[in-house]
């Protein structure tokens, strides 16, 4: 039996009259890449925010690494968040800092008593992993969108997260760079032993990176499984049209 690293059961969340999540059940297994698909406004970001305790759920349970998120005190929540890496859509690099400084920032802030050599070894190792060792002294403005994305992922990995959350990792990138980022996401899982949730609208990304995909429709996961199970045998018209729409694009 595969071990779960996160588990949501019967999760609901509304904003006023707007029912966004209406009974979400979802497991993330240790070591898997799980893709969450859903159209714009379906509640993917709300789900992730509840998972990391940035938003409060209405009902249901959200367990992460064995802990019920809503029961944690702020200090415990912050400690848990350090084990979760969030790769933002816009890479979220600090424009006034070099790549090295960007990478160093979360490390020195959260890990005390590191030597200069330990910090440099860590940064250089991660830049090697993402294929950009030569960018160490560059400014973010000198990097392409794909390179920024890679540096953002490297920076997220610097605290050795157990769970990686990728928010639209291929948004705004050309098709070749998308393939490179998809490859990097699967490589990160192998090299750093992470479990990941990848939020995307991009079915090519979903197919390339997902061990399983989960489709969020009307506030629930209507289909969860391998890409081929979910799409190639889909009977639900909306799941079929999601597939057709993506590939017509
Ligand atoms: N803090 C909030 N207050 C009120 N409404 C919110 C809040 N956060 C999200 N919503 C609403 O919840 C719905 C789901 O939003 P969410 O950002 O999760 O969508 P999404 O699936 O991530 O969309 P996209 O793919 O466009 O990023 C939207 O209608 C949004 O307006």
TrEMBL record:
It comes from the Bacteria. Residues 6-243 form the ABC transporter domain. Coiled coil: none annotated. The keyword ATP-binding applies. Pfam families: ABC_tran. GO terms for molecular function: ATP binding; ATP hydrolysis activity. Keywords: ATP-binding, Nucleotide-binding, Transport. This is Organic solvent ABC transporter ATP-binding protein. It comes from Rhodonellum psychrophilum GCM71 = DSM 17998.
